[in-house]
Specification:
alpha+beta, 4-stranded mixed beta sheet, 3-stranded antiparallel beta sheet, 5 helices, rod-shaped
Length: 236
Amino acid sequence: MRVGRGVKCTTTAVAALCLSLAPCLAGCASPGGTDPGGSLSTQPASSGSVQVTQEPVAGPIPMPLPAPPPYINPPPAAPRPTAASPQAPVAAPVPAPLPTAGEATGTFVYFVAIGDGGSRGVRFGCDDSLVAVHVTTPPGSDRLAGAMAQLLAPDGTASRAGLYNALSGSALRYVSGYLDGTTAVVNLSGSLRPGGVCDNPRIETQLAQTAVAATGASQAAIYIDGNALADVLSLR
């Protein structure tokens, strides 16, 4: 019968198709292209597929960073004074006060301690002592003129100090004076009257030392009316 042969042929064809599709179905059943036993598939990739592999990507190798320079601790900065902690001010030297315009200056006038033997001053002459007495002079005035005025004036300065003035019996006045190098030159006028032999060294020493103290000279030259004192004393 034709119908039965047709069915037989169709069944045979279906069976043959299933057998041909069995390997494909087995490959689809194993994920990742592996067989049921877990082994990798050795089938070559078809020409229409793209094979993806995990390979290292070549790129530039980074250079190592330079080491940082060594750290050096800077010295601590000096603290600045603040309103909360001010620095103490440095004490400045205090200048000595200058003398006022009305302040008097002074010098020394020399008198004699008779027979003192050097106890009160410098020993000289007839075992006497030469004693310095401080006297004041007006500010801005000539100290030599002031000292000579005190020495030649019969005002009792020596007697008040308990001393002797060998010039008290003379009548002399100061004319002028000046410095000649280290020598104080003193010009006097009047008459000279010594009281005895021992008054000669007393008059000479009193005049010379008073002139030296007033001028700062190292020696003195005394003249009376243009004559040297030594010559005037030799005539007495």
